[in-house]
Every structure is written in structure tokens, then in C-alpha cells.
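Re: weekly structure request thread

Next one in the queue (211 aa):
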Amino acid sequence: MKHVLLIVAMVLVVVACNLTSKLKSGNNSNSGSSSSSTSGKSSKIDGEPVEKANPTAAQSAAIANGQEVKWDQQGITWTLPANWKKVEVRNENLSYGGNGAFLTVAISPLPQMENLVDTSLKAMFESAKTQQKIGKYDEVRWLELDNVRGVGFRESKQEMADDIRRLEWQAYRKYAGSTQMITLILSTSSANFPKHEDELYGILYSTKVVH
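Done, posted below.
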């Protein structure tokens, strides 16, 4: 799983760079995004709907009779398929996996962002929409999980079948006296992504966050 953790680190670096360049921008996003799942809508940000978790029957069935996994250090809980196993759990990193698919989560304390959360989220969304236009993502949307609003995005089909394809959610919360960025990545090979897609969305929508 070292390569997965490296991916998380790289994602955080890219996001930090994007935020630095975007924080001063006042641009609004004005294009829609589609989802492979049926998601409820609540409120809007700059005209873009904020979706809430509302899994399809197939997505719910994919994690039915699964196991509840709680990240005690961070107060975050998921329902995972019964056959998924713990790979690593640390104070700021968590990894579980099964059948070639993985859940990887990183927590980044960012106390200096306390007054910039809304601006940062908008910059993150705008950056992802820009990357969607050049084909990196095929889904970008505002997604609220357990009353925590964040940005959800899905990578497009990769060039090679064995390349990793990711479903991601990034958000901020106030926890343990600090503002934190949550980076959640659900991944598998590009070739196997359709087979695991309901499972990955089911896990994503099961997220419960203490905040």
C-alpha cells in the first residue's frame, strides 16, 4: 500500500498548489456534472447544486451485511464489505482493501485555514472543473456527507487497464480544536472500476463524520 499512500501525499501537494493560485480568484463555476448514482439535492453554491448521499439500490446492496469500521483517532465511520481487511490505521492515515479495491483516507490539520474554508472549497471545485474540461475527471460535484460539505470527483477511464482510477472526496471540518482537510480516495484498477463502482459509491455514501 506504499504506492497508495504516496498517491495521497501527491494529491495533497497538488491541492495545496491549486489553492495557492486560486484563493484570490473570484470566478464562479457554471457547468453541471453527472453522477453514476442517484443523489439528493440540497441548496446551491454559485448556482451549482449541492448533492447529498442517496445511494441507489445497487450501491446499498454492494455493502449490505458489511462491517462497520470506525477510525477511533478521527471519529469517522464507514460500512465496508465484509471481506475487506485493514491495511494500515494511524493517527492521520487509514487504509482498508479487498478484492483489488481500496479505501485510503488522509487527515491534514490546517489551523491556518480556519477563516478560509469556504474560499478554499470553491477554489478546489473550480480547479477540479478545469481539470474535467481537459479530461482528467468525468464527474465533479459538490457533495455533502453527514452534513460535511465537500467536493466529489471521479477520474476518467485511464489509458492503461492496470492504471489506478480513483473516486475522491475532499472536505474541511473542525475537529479536536483544529481545522482539518479530509482526503478520501476509493480506488481500483481502471479495468476493474466498473465492477467495483457500486461498492465504492456505497462506501463513500456510508461515511459518518464527527465534527
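The longest helix spans residues 2-22. Residues 63 and 94 are 19 Å apart (CA to CA).
Next request, please.
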